[in-house]
Design goal:
Shape: elongated
Number of helices: 4
Radius of gyration: 25 Å
Low-confidence stretches: none
Mean pLDDT: 77
Order of helices and strands: HHHEEH
Structural class: mainly alpha
Distance between the termini: 27 Å
Helix content: 10-25%
Length: 168
């Protein structure tokens, strides 16, 4: 939400121009039961609603997805990813690129990759890099705005969270 106060739910005084303006009387007649027009939603109730619906807690079977925690507290540790043959990846970051062999199209027939792995190098931009595990970054990202209301000012330019650029 914006840090400076803005008219979000309280309509301004209609302009008497003919085109491109609202007709408050018609809006009230069409959407008389709207909580926005009733004054039920204030800036505080909208902040609370936003926190409940978009920031905090666990989504239970929402939009065709299984339940998930918005804070990603169960984010995987890539060090725990099994690797090798039989369809498993070569590393947690690289799929197994070996052929399953003549006459087979099944990943379960793949041998472990025996080639040389390239150094991951440094990616363009800022950040901890591609090799960082999601379980390391999830908690700091989920804590943004936890001191109060999430605002534009609570973000840090050029970083996801303090320390995400590899600096303190």
């Amino acid at each position: 939400m914006a840090e400076s106060r803005q008219t979000t739910v309280n309509p301004g005084i209609p302009d008497p121009k003919q085109f491109g303006t609202r007709n408050q009387k018609n809006l009230k007649a069409s959407f008389g039961g709207s909580p926005i027009l009733s004054g039920e939603y204030t800036d505080e109730t909208l902040r609370s609603l936003y926190a409940d619906l978009a920031l905090d807690g666990t989504v239970l079977n929402g939009l065709g997805f299984s339940s998930f925690d918005r804070d990603f507290s169960d984010a995987p540790n890539l060090a725990d990813v099994p690797t090798g043959g039989g369809g498993l990846p070569t590393t947690p970051h690289v799929p197994n690129v070996t052929s399953p062999g003549p006459g087979s199209v099944f990943a379960s027939d793949q041998a472990p990759y025996a080639g040389e792995l390239l150094d991951p190098g440094v990616e363009f931009g800022s950040g901890l890099g591609a090799m960082v595990s999601p379980n390391v970054t999830s908690e700091p990202i989920s804590s943004i705005g936890s001191e109060g209301v999430l605002t534009v000012g609570s973000y840090i330019m050029g970083r996801s969270f303090k320390g995400s650029d590899g600096q303190s």
